[in-house]
Design brief:
Length: 419
């Protein structure tokens, strides 16, 4: 089977990319989704707060997904549900399996990676104790409560203050559970400020920073956990142990881009984000393979996922149509430094970029009353005062094509400065 564009993943990124590709003039688009519904993770995110940027109104996750599903139907885009992609070859052959079609090989002119991310598991944390029932990732608990109608437990401790953990603290409280504490290893929260206020402060749930779970008690079922304060090297401090009686421990300890397929295809990954290294067109090191959404880097707002995915869809359509010039031309490298952990994209070909390019990144610590600066070579061209920057909130700078087109420099540095 031959297709022009194959999109792997039917979540918010895949849907937005498909719609944008078709609107850009590419009619032969196929979405492959392993679940039995389009919409991805949004189907279990029944809280509001989605769509403020995209639709200028506050929607729940399923409502937001439904808007994009409707566009996919209106545009007549083909999609296959219950279809698991097994591998992608460097030659852009997608091998997938489903109940209806069995094993199929699809030769694609362009592939858009939109597989999203997964949660870091207990196995990555090295917490001592047995393996009792009652330890869940926050996302699994969210699916159980919101989609399956099951309550994971009644007495809850949450480790990690990522957005899903914060939202589940509120959700479990709504369902009648008692959330005793949210413990966070870092000296700052990993979630959005608004979620700390709306999900913890409003319900009197304590957040303990620089704390972690040092023991899980119970053999058949969790009976309690011990929480300890940690030092600057994240080592538990003896004598600071606190015991909490509980039947459930939820883990919200980070998200990892789902890139096993990308690795198999030979896509080069960033050591910081665990997502692909991409250029201004969101194209990876393999020509015709694009990446967007949480498989590229973990976003805080789905609106940004949709915006980024639409850019990937348009770029893929342009690539398939042959409009994209084959010669590389000048390549400018983006250099994150001074607290900026990474940038997306990591390289820019000025000839291929749009008039305005949004560069997104996260910082590695909490910075207050500082400046976000951009250097073209050695010359500082942007210097913006920032009240606060935190790892939980994505930052961005905007670069103009006109400034880069005939540039006499080959690096753009993004950094944080005191003055």
């Amino acid at each position: 089977m031959k297709r022009n564009i194959v999109i792997i993943g039917g979540g918010p990124a895949g849907l937005a990319a498909a719609a944008a590709a078709v609107e850009a003039g590419e009619k032969d688009v196929l979405i492959l989704e392993r679940d039995n519904h389009l919409g991805g993770i949004l189907n279990q995110c029944i809280h509001n707060g989605f769509g403020l940027h995209t639709f200028k109104e506050e929607l729940t996750g399923p409502e937001y997904a439904a808007r994009f599903e409707q566009r996919v139907h209106e545009l007549g885009i083909e999609y296959k549900l219950g279809t698991m992609v097994l591998s992608i070859s460097p030659e852009k052959v997608v091998t997938a399996v489903s109940k209806e079609d069995g094993l199929v090989n699809i030769e694609a002119k362009a592939i858009i990676l939109a597989m999203g991310c997964r949660e870091r598991s207990r196995g990555a944390l090295n917490i001592p104790g047995f393996r009792p029932a009652g330890v869940f990732s926050a996302g699994t608990a969210q699916r159980l409560v919101n989609m399956e109608g099951y309550m994971p437990g009644k007495e809850v401790v949450i480790l990690g203050s990522g957005d899903i953990g914060l939202i589940m603290a509120r959700r479990m409280t709504f369902e009648g559970a008692k959330v005793h504490v949210v413990a966070e290893l870092q000296p700052y929260s990993g979630g959005l400020k608004r979620n700390i206020v709306q999900c913890l402060d409003d319900y009197g749930i304590p957040l303990k920073l620089s704390h972690t779970v040092t023991e899980i008690h119970g053999k058949e079922r969790v009976t309690g956990v011990t929480i300890s304060k940690v030092d600057e090297n994240f080592k538990p401090i003896p004598g600071t142990e606190e015991y909490y009686s509980c039947d459930t421990l939820l883990l919200s300890v980070g998200l990892l881009p789902e890139n096993e397929l990308s690795t198999g295809a030979g896509v080069q990954l960033s050591r910081v984000t665990n997502g692909p290294e991409v250029n201004e067109s969101l194209m990876t090191n393999i020509p015709g393979v694009f990446a967007c959404g949480n498989v590229l880097h973990v976003h805080d707002l789905v609106d940004y996922v949709s915006e980024e995915a639409a850019a990937a869809g348009r770029a893929a359509a342009q690539y398939v149509s042959g409009d994209e010039a084959q010669e590389e031309g000048k390549v400018i490298t983006l250099k994150p430094t001074g607290g900026v952990r990474y940038t997306v994209p990591s390289t820019i070909r000025p000839e291929h970029m749009a008039d305005l390019l949004t560069v997104r990144f996260r910082v590695g610590n909490v910075y207050k009353n500082c400046y976000l600066s951009v250097y073209f070579g050695d010359e500082r061209v942007q210097h913006r005062k920032k009240q606060v920057m935190a790892p939980g909130e994505m930052e961005q700078v905007i670069l103009k094509k006109a400034d880069l087109l005939n540039a006499g420099f080959d690096t753009v540095t993004i950094t944080i400065e005191e003055e």
